[in-house]
């Protein structure tokens, strides 16, 4: 099966560049933006060789996994672009629901599952940019941007999914769709993702529908009400994960009863957070 766009995505004006092999789909998309591409371009591959994660970390992606980047070119307020990661998380979770087999998924030690809430979501969203299953990282989202002329900017919304394999040498649990029992391939998942993105992007509406996106995200959020530790630069903030605010920042209730609002950081839930292991 070849990569293809869902009819909803094609009708909304999205385009597709499918590559047999790529260094980084994000880098490829941003190169297109600098060369004048107008955006709404998906760059996809199942053989990404130089993927990146947050803070310059390597993203390991053996052949068969999905690497997909949507290029967005815009001139609206730049801070709104950061919320595209939440649109991407919802779109991916919706796509996974569509292609993965039904059944219960347990929560691992650092999964940050909805403790005490029945675990109704098989795929949960971990702030700011991970998708979890079985309490382990299944997918990551990375936003990268560059300024263009005439006040415009480009954002590469990168999505990497462990479809057939996952790395074993990580400081946190990881999993793959294959390990979870799913039989879909990268092409099938992308077809569903392109459809789900079109739906969620309409809801987001260049930020006008951010409140609705926030509400949907919270319904899938991992770890609300649980112990959390957030690593911010050279310090760790601990408390209870309470919510995300109207700008999608992470809100913790600390042990003194006050709230701490966090714009960026590495989040740890469950036993890892409680044990003070970071």
From TrEMBL:
Domain of life: Bacteria
Keywords, in A-Z order: ATP-binding, Biotin, Ligase, Nucleotide-binding
Gene Ontology molecular function terms on file: ATP binding; biotin--[biotin carboxyl-carrier protein] ligase activity
GO cellular component: cytoplasm
PROSITE patterns (UniProt xref): BPL_LPL_CATALYTIC (PS51733)
Enzyme class, spelled out: ligase
EC number: 6.3.4.15
Cited SUPFAM superfamilies: C-terminal domain of transcriptional repressors, Class II aaRS and biotin synthetases
The name this protein goes by in its record: biotin--[biotin carboxyl-carrier protein] ligase
Species name: Aquamicrobium defluvii
């Amino acid at each position: 099966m070849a990569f293809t766009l869902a009819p909803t995505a094609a009708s909304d004006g999205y385009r597709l560049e499918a590559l047999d092999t790529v260094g980084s789909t994000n880098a490829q998309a941003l190169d297109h933006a600098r060369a004048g591409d107008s955006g709404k371009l998906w760059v996809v591959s199942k053989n990404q060789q130089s993927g990146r994660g947050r803070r310059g970390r390597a993203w390991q992606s053996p052949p068969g996994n999905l690497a997909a980047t949507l290029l967005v070119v815009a001139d609206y307020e730049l801070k709104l672009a950061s919320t595209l990661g939440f649109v991407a998380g919802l779109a991916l979770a919706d796509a996974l629901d569509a292609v993965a087999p039904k059944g219960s998924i347990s929560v691992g030690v650092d999964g940050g599952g909805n403790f005490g809430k029945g675990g109704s979501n098989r795929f949960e969203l971990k702030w700011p940019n991970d998708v979890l299953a079985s309490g382990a990282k299944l997918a990551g989202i990375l936003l990268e941007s560059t300024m263009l002329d005439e006040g415009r900017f480009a954002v590469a919304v990168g999505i990497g999914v462990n479809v057939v394999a996952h790395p074993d040498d990580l400081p946190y649990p990881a999993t793959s769709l294959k390990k979870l029992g799913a039989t879909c391939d990268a092409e099938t998942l992308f077809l569903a993702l392109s459809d789900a993105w079109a739906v969620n992007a309409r809801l987001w509406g260049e930020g006008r529908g951010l409140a609705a996106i926030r509400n949907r995200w919270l319904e899938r959020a991992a770890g609300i009400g649980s112990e959390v530790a957030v690593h911010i630069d050279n310090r760790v903030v601990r408390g209870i994960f309470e919510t995300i605010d109207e700008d999608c920042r992470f809100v913790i209730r600390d042990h003194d009863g006050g709230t701490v609002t966090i714009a960026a950081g590495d989040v740890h839930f469950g036993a890892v957070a409680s044990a003070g292991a970071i």
